[in-house]
Structure formats: C-alpha cells, structure tokens
Amino acid sequence: MYTTSEKPRYLRGLISNLALFIVIIVLVVLTTLYLAFLNKRHADRRVTLGKAADVVDQSMEDNKTWAKSDADAGSGRRQSLDKAFDDETDLRNEDFIYVY
Question: What's the chain's Rg over C-alpha atoms?
C-alpha cells in the first residue's frame, strides 16, 4: 500500500488505514450491542425461571469481596454458580453474563 512512487503523501496507504480503522470501530460497536442484547435475553430468561434478573459479575473483585458475597445466601454470585460447572455453552446458560 505504501509505495515510493506515492511519497510523500502515500494517499492509497492512508486511505486504506482509515478504512480499516472505521471497520474496526464499527465491529466494536456491533459487538457491544450484540453482547448487550444477549445479556438482556439472559436476564429475561432468568426472570421466567423465577430468578433475579440482574447478576453482578464479581470475578475481578478482591478476595474479601468474594468471601463477603459467599456469606450472603441470596447474592448474585451464589446464584451464578448454580450452573458454573455444568457442561453448557454460554448461550444456553441463563446465569452467564457477558462483560463488555
């Protein structure tokens, strides 16, 4: 894309870089919207199964927060571990949430 015959502007190379950056931005936005849609669908499925709609992801919290949420029997973390070791895909596990 960057040839010496196009110097110093390298117009073809710059246009291709700009187009690829735009494609990346569009893909990031579409992926974020799709993950939000999947989270909403999982929340609706949890409600129909009689569970709480909101699940809080605490996987990146420190150990003190994990221990505190384990002590609380009604916590979202305990609820989300109901199917933690089942052989199910993310799309089929209603307790799974996508973090974006």
Answer: 22
Q: Tell me the CA distances in angstroms from 91 to 24, 27, 39, 42, 45, one per residue in order.
A: 24, 20, 10, 8, 11
Q: CA torsion, points 70, 76, 77, 83, in degrees to nearest 10? A: 120
CA distance 25 to 46: 32
50: left (phi over 0), alpha (psi -120 to 50) or beta: left
Residue spans of alpha helices (H) in 1-100: 11-48, 63-71, 76-80
Question: Does the pLDDT of residue 68 top 60, yes or no?
Answer: no
Phi, psi values for residue 91, rounded to 5°: -70, -30
Distances from the Cα of 78 to the Cα of 19, 24, 83, angstroms: 45, 37, 10
pLDDT category at 34 given cuts 50, 70, 90 is: very high
